[in-house]
Amino acid sequence: MKKIGILCSGGDAPGMNSALRAVVRSAIFEGIEVFGIKNGYEGLIDGSLVPMVESSVADIIQKGGTILGTSRSERFTKKEGVSQALNVLKVYGIEGLIVLGGDGSMRGAYSLYKEGFPVGLIPCSIDNDMDYTDYTVGFWTAVDTVTDAISKIRDTTDAHNRANVVEVMGRNCGDIALYAGISGGAESILVPENKADIDDIARKMLMGKNRGKRHHIILVAEGLGHAHEIAEELQKITEIETRVTILGYIQRGGSPSSVDRVLASAMGNVLVKKMIENDENKALAVGIRNGKIFTEDFERAFNRKKVFSKNLYDIMKIVSI
Ligand code: F6P
Protein backbone atom coordinates (compact mmCIF):
# COMPACT_ATOMS: atom_id res chain seq x y z
CA MET A 1 0.00 0.00 0.00
CA LYS A 2 1.62 3.24 -1.14
CA LYS A 3 -1.25 5.74 -1.12
CA ILE A 4 -4.24 6.05 1.20
CA GLY A 5 -7.20 8.40 1.49
CA ILE A 6 -8.89 9.66 4.63
CA LEU A 7 -12.31 11.22 5.17
CA CYS A 8 -14.67 12.20 7.98
CA SER A 9 -18.30 11.15 7.72
CA GLY A 10 -21.56 11.69 9.63
CA GLY A 11 -21.79 13.87 12.73
CA ASP A 12 -18.45 15.43 13.65
CA ALA A 13 -16.93 14.45 16.98
CA PRO A 14 -14.25 16.17 19.10
CA GLY A 15 -11.04 14.26 18.42
CA MET A 16 -11.61 13.76 14.68
CA ASN A 17 -8.77 16.20 14.00
CA SER A 18 -6.52 14.41 16.48
CA ALA A 19 -7.23 11.13 14.64
CA LEU A 20 -6.58 12.77 11.27
CA ARG A 21 -3.25 14.09 12.52
CA ALA A 22 -2.25 10.64 13.81
CA VAL A 23 -3.18 8.90 10.56
CA VAL A 24 -1.40 11.41 8.31
CA ARG A 25 1.80 11.41 10.35
CA SER A 26 1.83 7.63 10.96
CA ALA A 27 1.34 7.01 7.23
CA ILE A 28 4.11 9.44 6.27
CA PHE A 29 6.36 7.73 8.85
CA GLU A 30 5.65 4.42 7.09
CA GLY A 31 6.42 5.93 3.68
CA ILE A 32 2.80 6.19 2.53
CA GLU A 33 1.24 9.14 0.74
CA VAL A 34 -2.03 10.48 2.11
CA PHE A 35 -4.91 12.30 0.43
CA GLY A 36 -7.47 14.13 2.54
CA ILE A 37 -11.00 13.93 1.15
CA LYS A 38 -13.19 16.97 1.80
CA ASN A 39 -16.75 16.76 3.16
CA GLY A 40 -16.98 12.99 3.59
CA TYR A 41 -18.37 10.64 0.96
CA GLU A 42 -19.80 13.67 -0.88
CA GLY A 43 -16.26 14.92 -1.57
CA LEU A 44 -15.16 11.43 -2.56
CA ILE A 45 -17.89 11.24 -5.21
CA ASP A 46 -17.00 14.74 -6.44
CA GLY A 47 -13.25 14.11 -6.45
CA SER A 48 -12.53 16.76 -3.84
CA LEU A 49 -9.12 15.52 -2.67
CA VAL A 50 -6.06 17.30 -1.29
CA PRO A 51 -2.57 15.89 -0.70
CA MET A 52 -1.64 15.92 3.01
CA VAL A 53 1.87 16.49 4.34
CA GLU A 54 3.17 16.62 7.93
CA SER A 55 2.36 20.33 8.22
CA SER A 56 -1.19 19.91 6.86
CA VAL A 57 -2.13 18.55 10.27
CA ALA A 58 -0.06 20.93 12.40
CA ASP A 59 -1.86 22.72 15.23
CA ILE A 60 -5.07 20.69 14.96
CA ILE A 61 -4.81 18.12 17.79
CA GLN A 62 -6.72 20.53 20.05
CA LYS A 63 -9.34 21.66 17.54
CA GLY A 64 -12.99 20.62 17.60
CA GLY A 65 -14.95 19.91 14.41
CA THR A 66 -12.94 18.62 11.46
CA ILE A 67 -10.61 20.53 9.13
CA LEU A 68 -11.65 18.19 6.30
CA GLY A 69 -15.37 18.83 6.71
CA THR A 70 -17.98 16.09 6.95
CA SER A 71 -21.41 15.22 5.57
CA ARG A 72 -24.25 12.75 5.70
CA SER A 73 -24.19 11.66 2.05
CA GLU A 74 -27.44 10.56 0.51
CA ARG A 75 -25.71 9.94 -2.86
CA PHE A 76 -23.30 7.46 -1.32
CA THR A 77 -26.19 5.23 -0.20
CA LYS A 78 -26.89 4.57 -3.91
CA LYS A 79 -24.99 2.15 -6.18
CA GLU A 80 -24.08 4.93 -8.63
CA GLY A 81 -22.52 6.99 -5.81
CA VAL A 82 -20.36 4.06 -4.67
CA SER A 83 -19.16 3.30 -8.21
CA GLN A 84 -18.34 6.98 -8.85
CA ALA A 85 -16.36 7.00 -5.57
CA LEU A 86 -14.45 3.89 -6.71
CA ASN A 87 -13.61 5.63 -10.00
CA VAL A 88 -12.20 8.62 -8.13
CA LEU A 89 -10.10 6.38 -5.88
CA LYS A 90 -8.76 4.58 -8.95
CA VAL A 91 -7.91 7.79 -10.80
CA TYR A 92 -5.91 9.02 -7.78
CA GLY A 93 -4.21 5.62 -7.35
CA ILE A 94 -5.48 5.32 -3.80
CA GLU A 95 -5.22 1.78 -2.44
CA GLY A 96 -6.92 2.07 0.93
CA LEU A 97 -9.40 4.38 2.64
CA ILE A 98 -9.60 5.34 6.31
CA VAL A 99 -12.98 6.59 7.49
CA LEU A 100 -13.50 8.60 10.67
CA GLY A 101 -17.11 8.26 11.78
CA GLY A 102 -19.80 6.25 13.49
CA ASP A 103 -21.98 3.31 12.52
CA GLY A 104 -23.56 5.01 9.47
CA SER A 105 -20.09 5.81 8.14
CA MET A 106 -19.09 2.22 8.78
CA ARG A 107 -21.98 1.06 6.61
CA GLY A 108 -20.70 3.40 3.87
CA ALA A 109 -17.17 2.05 4.14
CA TYR A 110 -18.55 -1.47 4.03
CA SER A 111 -20.11 -0.87 0.63
CA LEU A 112 -16.65 0.03 -0.75
CA TYR A 113 -15.16 -3.05 0.87
CA LYS A 114 -17.90 -5.19 -0.73
CA GLU A 115 -16.54 -3.98 -4.08
CA GLY A 116 -13.09 -5.22 -3.07
CA PHE A 117 -11.66 -1.92 -1.80
CA PRO A 118 -9.63 -2.04 1.47
CA VAL A 119 -11.08 0.19 4.19
CA GLY A 120 -10.45 0.97 7.84
CA LEU A 121 -12.62 2.73 10.41
CA ILE A 122 -11.74 4.86 13.41
CA PRO A 123 -14.90 5.07 15.55
CA CYS A 124 -15.59 8.79 15.98
CA SER A 125 -18.96 9.70 17.46
CA ILE A 126 -20.15 11.42 20.59
CA ASP A 127 -22.84 8.73 20.95
CA ASN A 128 -20.66 5.77 22.06
CA ASP A 129 -23.18 3.52 20.37
CA MET A 130 -20.83 0.94 18.82
CA ASP A 131 -20.58 -2.25 20.81
CA TYR A 132 -17.29 -3.58 19.44
CA THR A 133 -15.37 -0.76 21.17
CA ASP A 134 -15.66 0.35 24.79
CA TYR A 135 -15.40 4.00 23.70
CA THR A 136 -15.72 6.03 20.53
CA VAL A 137 -13.58 9.13 19.97
CA GLY A 138 -15.53 12.22 21.05
CA PHE A 139 -17.66 10.53 23.67
CA TRP A 140 -15.65 11.61 26.72
CA THR A 141 -15.49 15.22 25.53
CA ALA A 142 -19.27 15.26 25.13
CA VAL A 143 -19.61 13.79 28.63
CA ASP A 144 -17.35 16.57 29.96
CA THR A 145 -19.43 19.21 28.15
CA VAL A 146 -22.67 17.85 29.61
CA THR A 147 -21.10 17.54 33.07
CA ASP A 148 -20.07 21.19 32.91
CA ALA A 149 -23.55 22.20 31.70
CA ILE A 150 -25.19 20.31 34.57
CA SER A 151 -23.09 22.24 37.09
CA LYS A 152 -24.23 25.53 35.62
CA ILE A 153 -27.85 24.48 35.35
CA ARG A 154 -27.74 23.27 38.95
CA ASP A 155 -26.64 26.73 40.18
CA THR A 156 -29.69 28.46 38.78
CA THR A 157 -32.02 25.54 39.53
CA ASP A 158 -30.92 25.61 43.16
CA ALA A 159 -31.26 29.39 43.38
CA HIS A 160 -34.91 29.11 42.30
CA ASN A 161 -35.76 25.88 44.09
CA ARG A 162 -36.74 24.21 40.82
CA ALA A 163 -36.23 21.08 38.77
CA ASN A 164 -34.66 21.01 35.32
CA VAL A 165 -35.12 18.32 32.68
CA VAL A 166 -31.96 18.34 30.55
CA GLU A 167 -32.09 16.60 27.17
CA VAL A 168 -28.80 15.24 25.84
CA MET A 169 -27.77 13.71 22.50
CA GLY A 170 -26.85 10.11 21.79
CA ARG A 171 -29.42 8.99 19.22
CA ASN A 172 -30.75 5.65 20.52
CA CYS A 173 -27.92 5.21 22.98
CA GLY A 174 -28.20 6.39 26.58
CA ASP A 175 -24.44 6.46 27.33
CA ILE A 176 -24.03 10.26 27.33
CA ALA A 177 -26.94 10.55 29.77
CA LEU A 178 -25.61 7.69 31.90
CA TYR A 179 -21.98 8.80 32.18
CA ALA A 180 -22.72 12.54 32.48
CA GLY A 181 -25.53 11.75 34.91
CA ILE A 182 -23.03 10.04 37.19
CA SER A 183 -20.22 12.58 36.78
CA GLY A 184 -22.55 15.56 37.04
CA GLY A 185 -24.44 14.16 40.03
CA ALA A 186 -27.86 14.29 38.34
CA GLU A 187 -30.75 13.11 40.48
CA SER A 188 -32.27 10.89 37.76
CA ILE A 189 -31.66 9.73 34.22
CA LEU A 190 -34.06 8.53 31.56
CA VAL A 191 -32.57 6.42 28.76
CA PRO A 192 -34.14 4.38 25.96
CA GLU A 193 -32.45 1.16 27.13
CA ASN A 194 -33.94 1.20 30.61
CA LYS A 195 -37.21 3.03 30.88
CA ALA A 196 -37.58 4.48 34.36
CA ASP A 197 -41.00 5.08 35.83
CA ILE A 198 -42.03 8.75 35.92
CA ASP A 199 -43.73 8.16 39.30
CA ASP A 200 -40.42 6.90 40.74
CA ILE A 201 -38.68 10.07 39.61
CA ALA A 202 -41.48 12.23 41.02
CA ARG A 203 -41.28 10.36 44.33
CA LYS A 204 -37.53 10.94 44.44
CA MET A 205 -38.05 14.65 43.79
CA LEU A 206 -40.54 14.92 46.63
CA MET A 207 -38.34 12.98 49.02
CA GLY A 208 -35.44 15.26 48.13
CA LYS A 209 -37.58 18.33 48.67
CA ASN A 210 -38.64 17.03 52.08
CA ARG A 211 -35.06 16.74 53.18
CA GLY A 212 -34.26 20.27 52.02
CA LYS A 213 -32.98 19.69 48.48
CA ARG A 214 -33.43 22.81 46.36
CA HIS A 215 -32.65 21.33 42.93
CA HIS A 216 -33.47 18.26 40.86
CA ILE A 217 -31.63 17.56 37.62
CA ILE A 218 -33.23 14.94 35.40
CA LEU A 219 -31.16 13.91 32.36
CA VAL A 220 -33.15 12.60 29.39
CA ALA A 221 -31.47 10.89 26.43
CA GLU A 222 -32.78 12.22 23.13
CA GLY A 223 -33.62 8.64 22.04
CA LEU A 224 -36.38 8.73 24.62
CA GLY A 225 -37.41 12.23 23.62
CA HIS A 226 -40.34 14.24 24.96
CA ALA A 227 -38.33 16.35 27.42
CA HIS A 228 -41.13 18.94 27.52
CA GLU A 229 -43.84 16.34 28.19
CA ILE A 230 -41.71 14.71 30.90
CA ALA A 231 -41.17 18.10 32.58
CA GLU A 232 -44.89 18.90 32.43
CA GLU A 233 -45.81 15.56 33.94
CA LEU A 234 -43.25 15.88 36.74
CA GLN A 235 -44.39 19.39 37.57
CA LYS A 236 -48.01 18.23 37.65
CA ILE A 237 -47.29 15.36 40.05
CA THR A 238 -44.80 17.15 42.33
CA GLU A 239 -45.85 20.80 42.03
CA ILE A 240 -42.14 21.60 41.80
CA GLU A 241 -41.53 24.20 39.08
CA THR A 242 -39.78 22.25 36.31
CA ARG A 243 -37.89 23.82 33.39
CA VAL A 244 -36.37 22.23 30.28
CA THR A 245 -32.91 22.60 28.72
CA ILE A 246 -32.12 20.99 25.37
CA LEU A 247 -28.33 21.01 25.18
CA GLY A 248 -28.15 20.26 21.43
CA TYR A 249 -25.09 20.81 19.26
CA ILE A 250 -22.96 22.32 22.02
CA GLN A 251 -22.25 18.65 22.84
CA ARG A 252 -20.53 18.08 19.49
CA GLY A 253 -18.19 21.06 19.60
CA GLY A 254 -15.20 22.18 21.60
CA SER A 255 -11.63 21.15 22.09
CA PRO A 256 -11.28 17.37 22.55
CA SER A 257 -10.45 16.19 26.07
CA SER A 258 -7.05 14.62 26.69
CA VAL A 259 -8.69 11.19 26.83
CA ASP A 260 -10.11 11.67 23.33
CA ARG A 261 -6.82 13.03 21.99
CA VAL A 262 -4.89 10.03 23.30
CA LEU A 263 -7.53 7.58 22.08
CA ALA A 264 -7.61 9.17 18.62
CA SER A 265 -3.82 9.26 18.34
CA ALA A 266 -3.37 5.63 19.40
CA MET A 267 -6.23 4.36 17.22
CA GLY A 268 -4.96 6.29 14.19
CA ASN A 269 -1.46 4.89 14.53
CA VAL A 270 -2.55 1.28 15.15
CA LEU A 271 -4.98 1.31 12.23
CA VAL A 272 -2.39 2.62 9.75
CA LYS A 273 0.08 -0.09 10.81
CA LYS A 274 -2.59 -2.81 10.60
CA MET A 275 -3.75 -1.66 7.19
CA ILE A 276 -0.22 -2.00 5.87
CA GLU A 277 0.13 -5.51 7.35
CA ASN A 278 -3.34 -6.52 6.28
CA ASP A 279 -2.49 -8.53 3.20
CA GLU A 280 -5.92 -10.19 2.98
CA ASN A 281 -7.41 -6.74 2.41
CA LYS A 282 -9.99 -7.10 5.11
CA ALA A 283 -12.10 -4.17 6.27
CA LEU A 284 -10.70 -3.25 9.66
CA ALA A 285 -12.31 -1.40 12.54
CA VAL A 286 -10.01 -0.16 15.28
CA GLY A 287 -11.31 0.00 18.84
CA ILE A 288 -10.40 -0.13 22.51
CA ARG A 289 -11.42 -2.87 24.90
CA ASN A 290 -10.27 -3.21 28.50
CA GLY A 291 -7.64 -0.54 27.89
CA LYS A 292 -6.15 -2.26 24.84
CA ILE A 293 -6.28 -0.87 21.29
CA PHE A 294 -7.13 -3.60 18.79
CA THR A 295 -8.45 -4.06 15.28
CA GLU A 296 -11.13 -6.48 14.19
CA ASP A 297 -12.83 -7.08 10.90
CA PHE A 298 -15.95 -5.15 10.04
CA GLU A 299 -18.20 -8.19 9.83
CA ARG A 300 -17.62 -8.97 13.49
CA ALA A 301 -17.78 -5.35 14.59
CA PHE A 302 -21.01 -4.85 12.64
CA ASN A 303 -22.88 -7.79 14.05
CA ARG A 304 -22.53 -6.81 17.68
CA LYS A 305 -25.51 -5.12 19.22
CA LYS A 306 -24.61 -2.39 21.72
CA VAL A 307 -25.14 -3.63 25.27
CA PHE A 308 -26.19 -1.01 27.79
CA SER A 309 -24.26 -1.03 31.06
CA LYS A 310 -26.95 -2.09 33.51
CA ASN A 311 -24.22 -2.25 36.12
CA LEU A 312 -23.38 1.45 35.80
CA TYR A 313 -27.08 2.31 35.63
CA ASP A 314 -27.64 0.57 38.99
CA ILE A 315 -24.64 2.41 40.46
CA MET A 316 -26.11 5.70 39.19
CA LYS A 317 -29.37 4.93 40.96
CA ILE A 318 -27.64 4.20 44.25
CA VAL A 319 -25.24 7.15 44.29
CA SER A 320 -28.05 9.58 43.48
CA ILE A 321 -30.57 8.54 46.18
O1 F6P B 1 -24.44 10.93 15.94
C1 F6P B 1 -24.13 12.14 16.55
C2 F6P B 1 -25.37 12.99 16.71
O2 F6P B 1 -24.97 14.23 17.31
C3 F6P B 1 -26.50 12.36 17.50
O3 F6P B 1 -26.29 12.39 18.88
C4 F6P B 1 -27.67 13.17 17.02
O4 F6P B 1 -28.87 12.45 17.15
C5 F6P B 1 -27.34 13.41 15.57
O5 F6P B 1 -25.95 13.28 15.46
C6 F6P B 1 -27.75 14.75 15.02
O6 F6P B 1 -27.44 14.73 13.67
P1 F6P B 1 -27.45 15.99 12.70
O7 F6P B 1 -26.14 16.68 12.83
O8 F6P B 1 -27.60 15.40 11.34
O9 F6P B 1 -28.59 16.86 13.12
UniProtKB/TrEMBL annotation:
EC number: 2.7.1.11
Protein name per UniProt: ATP-dependent 6-phosphofructokinase
Keyword Cell membrane: no
SUPFAM superfamilies: Phosphofructokinase (SSF53784)
Catalytic machinery residues: 127 (proton acceptor)
Gene3D superfamilies: 3.40.50.450, Phosphofructokinase domain
Enzymatic class: transferase
Assigned protein family: Belongs to the phosphofructokinase type A (PFKA) family. ATP-dependent PFK group I subfamily. Prokaryotic clade 'B1' sub-subfamily.
InterPro entries in alphabetical order: ATP_PFK (IPR022953), ATP_PFK_prok-type (IPR012003), PFKA_ATP_prok (IPR012828), Phosphofructokinase_dom (IPR000023), PKF_sf (IPR035966)
Reactions catalysed according to its record: beta-D-fructose 6-phosphate + ATP = beta-D-fructose 1,6-bisphosphate + ADP + H(+)
Assembly and oligomerization: Homotetramer.
Binding site for Mg(2+): 103
Phosphofructokinase domain: residues covered: 3-273
Positions of substrate binding: 125-127, 162, 169-171, 222, 243, 249-252
Organism: Peptoniphilus koenoeneniae
Record function comment: Catalyzes the phosphorylation of D-fructose 6-phosphate to fructose 1,6-bisphosphate by ATP, the first committing step of glycolysis.
